[in-house]
Design goal:
Elements lengths: L115 H12 L4 H5 L3 H18 L9 H22 L8 H14 L1 H35 L5 H20 L5 H17 L1 H4 L3 H12 L7 H4 L7 H14 L10 H11 L4 H4 L1 H15 L5 H17 L6 H24 L3 H14 L6 H16 L17 E9 L4 E6 L3 E6 L8 E2 L21 E7 L1 E9 L9 E9 L5 E6 L1 E2 L2
Parallel strand pairs: 1-8, 4-9
Antiparallel strand pairs: 1-5, 2-3, 2-6, 6-7
């Protein structure tokens, strides 16, 4: 009789037997898949290809062969239960048996073999900065740290600016990524990952692809930073343009500081940042700069054009020569023409700013060989001739003022080329001074006529007109007190014929000057009479007649005049003394007839 087989023991089906086969054991639950880059490990003691849970042969009862235990869903190895001892596995009503946590527990799974490919994939996934290696390892703390570090970097880096990210931040982030990659490599070397086989094959290529994230981000940030730099350079260019534009309408002296700042920006952009968008615009900006500052020349405002053109020509020593090119040289002709036109237009203009000599000297010094420089001397002589002709016209005084201004200009010009112009100017001034004095006399401007003719006699003592100028000055002085004496200019020469004697005596305190004009003009001075006093006014003496010069003849200082016949006007000017004030004057008239001699007694009356 065959031995009795417990119903829970797995047996092979009976071969050609009429006894019913025992029920098959319950199916083993599938094992949890694990990541392994290689062939999966075989179950211990199970031949390759043998179905799980199936014995490689018949197991005799009581032979001690281990029977799988499926009571908790996991197979456990152990000695088979002896026949007839204890309930079989799974025996009894559902739920019966020891609860989880009690009794025997499955042992801790031992670490798998080292898998460098897996470790490298996890390390590379962490190196991307996304913390994906930690995600596969279910290390959420590490993943969160990676995310926080990357987010902090983005906060610091964005938006991209010219200065970029501080070096310390980049170094710190790089060190963190390397540390995360190393830690991921260490953790993933022997880790068992719960991912499918398809993903296991894609993990390493995916890690390599994801390395493009930081690299691409770096490139994108570099491009954004380059654009920020371009925008900053364009902003600087715009600021320089605004400074140039703000100088329009201002005097160059006031706008020059703005122009200098703009030029410094143009030079920096055009040399240090020549390849930038702003740098490539600098040549056009320089053309516009030259055009704006040359605008006064284009409008033929030559004096106003001199300063900006001089500035433009001098830029070759202050701005990069390669950047400027031929622009400074193109200002030579406009500047020379402006200096010539400004200087010649100022000839004879007393209030000219700048004076003629400043512009003309600048022309002769800067462009001595230019056509404009050779035209200066003829232009000066033409200006002198024009004014010399004008002194014979209606405004000789204005013409002589202009001639004096021209003489100052000629005296400041270099070289002997202007000696002829200087002589012509002096001759014209002499002619103009005399014409001015006579014009003032005829216009009854006697006070100015006195000044002009007196100065003429001093300035031109050897002139043939010096004596006549003195006569006109005397007549004008008399006419200033007695207008009738200024009806006509005194003659340039005294008339011929007989002359009558007039003896003039001083019967008064202080010296006295006697001026006379008529057919001849002159002045004499009589010394003071030491014993003479003022006579009482007849009004206060009952109209008692004054008897002057009745004492001894030798008492009174005397002077003798020889006068041609005619009507004369006299003016006595007494010097100040203790009893009289300077400037006491008195006019009188006299008619000198042929064949007579005359006496003229000069005295002073008192008002009280």
């Amino acid at each position: 009789m065959a031995p009795e087989t417990p119903p829970w023991a797995p047996v092979r089906p009976a071969a050609a037997s009429g006894t019913p086969a025992a029920p098959p054991p319950p199916e083993r639950p599938p094992a949890t898949p694990t990541l392994a880059f290689g062939p999966p490990p075989q179950a211990s003691g199970q031949p390759t290809g043998q179905p799980p849970g199936e014995s490689s042969g018949a197991v005799p009862v009581g032979a001690g062969a281990a029977a799988p235990d499926y009571s908790y869903g996991y197979p456990r190895s152990g000695p088979a239960t002896a026949p007839g001892y204890g309930p079989p596995p799974g025996y009894g009503p559902p739920g019966y048996g020891p609860p989880p946590g009690h009794g025997a527990q499955p042992p801790a799974q031992p670490p798998g073999p080292a898998n460098p490919a897996q470790a490298a994939a996890i390390g590379l996934l962490n190196l991307s900065g996304l913390g994906l290696g930690y995600v596969l390892l279910r290390n959420w703390i590490g993943a969160v740290l990676c995310w926080l570090a990357t987010a902090a970097l983005l906060v610091v880096a964005l938006p991209a600016d010219v200065d970029g990210v501080p070096v310390g931040v980049l170094v710190g982030y790089g060190v963190f990524l390397l540390a995360a990659a190393a830690d991921g490599f260490r953790r993933g070397l022997r880790a068992t990952l719960r991912i499918g086989a398809a993903f296991r094959r894609l993990a390493l290529p995916l890690a390599l692809v994801l390395l493009a994230v930081p690299a691409g981000g770096s490139l994108a940030y570099g491009a954004a930073r380059d654009e920020a730099k371009e925008q900053a350079l364009l902003a600087r260019l715009t600021t320089a343009d605004e400074r140039v534009k703000s100088g329009q309408g201002l005097l160059f002296e006031r706008a020059e500081p703005l122009y200098r700042l703009a030029l410094a920006t143009y030079q920096d952009l055009g040399t240090k940042h020549a390849g930038s968008r702003a740098g490539k615009l600098v040549p056009a900006r320089l053309d516009a700069y030259y055009e704006q500052l040359s605008a006064p020349y284009a409008k033929k405002d030559y004096c106003k054009a001199v300063a900006p053109l001089t500035h433009l020509r001098g830029l070759s020593g202050a701005v990069d020569k390669d950047l400027l090119g031929t622009r400074p040289a193109k200002t030579d002709e406009p500047l020379a023409e402006s200096l010539y036109e400004c200087g010649t237009a100022a000839l004879g203009v007393q209030a000219a700013d700048p004076p003629a000599e400043k512009s003309l000297n600048a022309l002769l010094d800067t462009f001595p060989e230019s056509d404009h420089a050779t035209r200066v001397e003829p232009a000066v002589r033409a200006a002198v001739k024009t004014r010399s002709t004008a002194v014979d016209g209606a405004t000789p005084c204005e013409a002589v003022v202009e001639l004096r201004t021209i003489r100052t200009t000629v005296g400041a010009l270099p070289g002997a080329d202007f000696d002829g112009a200087a002589r012509e100017t002096s001759t014209a001034i002499e002619k103009g001074d005399f014409a001015c004095g006579t014009s003032q006399f005829r216009s009854k401007d006697f006070d100015d006529a006195v000044t002009t003719m007196t100065q003429f006699a001093k300035d031109h003592p050897s002139s043939p007109k010096a004596a006549h100028a003195r006569s006109i000055a005397i007549a004008a002085e008399i006419a200033d007190e007695e207008a009738e004496a200024g009806k006509a200019l005194p003659p340039a020469k005294a008339p011929g014929g007989s002359r009558m004697v007039m003896v003039v005596s001083n019967d008064g305190p202080g010296s006295v000057e006697l001026l006379y004009t008529g057919p001849t003009t002159g002045r004499i001075t009589l010394n003071a009479c030491a014993t003479c006093t003022k006579y009482p006014n007849p009004i206060f003496e009952g109209s008692k007649k004054i008897k002057a010069c009745t004492g001894p003849s030798s008492k009174y200082p005397k002077a003798t005049l020889l006068l041609p016949a005619g009507n004369y006007h006299f003016l006595q000017k007494r010097a100040g003394t203790g009893t009289s004030s300077a400037g006491d004057t008195k006019t009188s008239k006299a008619k000198i007839e042929p064949g007579y001699s005359y006496t003229n007694c000069l005295y002073v009356t008192s008002g009280f």
